Amino acid sequence: MNSLTDVPSMSTLPPSSASLGARLVGSVVPRAQLKPADRDRMYELLSTYFEGTRRSQFESDLAEKESVVILRDSDQCLIQGFSTMVRMEVMVDSKSIVAFFSGDTIVAAEFWGESILSRLWSQTVFAEAESIVAQRPSTEVYWFLICSGYKTYRFLPVFFREFYPNPFSETPDYMQRILNTLGSAKFGECYDPHSGVVRFPDATPLREGVADITDRRLNDPIVAFFKG
């Protein structure tokens, strides 16, 4: 993948200290440190919540990533959630752009509502972003995200004051060029620059009941915009 950066690997965080009564303990680890049993459990979670998954595709996607946020339950130390991460670097209008791309992400249903995944992700990515800008002040850093469900899309207004596309303003031409460059670099012909949608030949949509959009949910402009 020729869009990957040659900058040092993403930092590794130790397991988070479990607060009293916490149900999940999280850590950020290099992808290469995952054990076979970890990968088995990660794929089990993925196939539970997404349709049409293939182990070969899961392994191929994972091989591209640098780091993984791992969530384990505090009772059995079993993986109950994860998110994969990798950095990309592209040039847009002669400017260096670094983007953190989030890959496969899922949390077991019994742990929905826990905030540790988002906290660990933000601590890791924001620290990395600050380090990059400190070393290369002219570099612009972004989160590059694709979403299968509205729950992931709703993270954007939680973490950022400005994000695109959004229901409140048009995407500026410069931002659209960044999106198109990243989309084409990562997904090739699967990325449609006119709609901003990635269309995989072997899609793996969320299973029914995982993130269904109800009439009540559509009262949220973020959810309504995501549904289109």
Q: Distance N terminus to C terminus?
A: 31 Å
CATH-defined fold name: Aminopeptidase
- Main β sheet profile: 5 strands, mixed
Helix coverage percent of residues?
25-40%
- Strand fraction band? 15-25%
Looking at CATH, the homologous superfamily is Gcn5-related N-acetyltransferase (GNAT)
Estimate the global geometry from the Cα principal axes.
globular
Number of domains: 1
Coarse structural class? alpha+beta
SS elements, strand count: 7
CATH-level-2 architecture:
3-Layer(aba) Sandwich
Query: Using only CA atoms, what is the Rg?
Result: 18 Å
Order of helices and strands: EHHEEEHEHHHEEH
Across the major sheet, the strand order is 1-2-3-4-5
Mean pLDDT: 90
| Low-confidence region ranges | 1-9
Tell me the name of the CATH class.
Alpha Beta
The number of distinct helices, counting runs of at least 4 residues, comes to: 7
Commentary on this structure:
The chain has 228 residues and is an alpha+beta fold. The protein has helices spanning 36-49, 55-64, 116-135, 150-153, 155-159, 173-187, 221-227; strands at 24-30, 67-73, 79-92, 95-107, 140-144, 191-192, 197-198. It has a single domain, classed as 3-Layer(aba) Sandwich (Aminopeptidase). A 5-stranded mixed beta sheet has the order 1-2-3-4-5, with helices on both faces. A two-stranded antiparallel sheet has the order 6-7. Mean pLDDT is 90; it is low at 1-9.
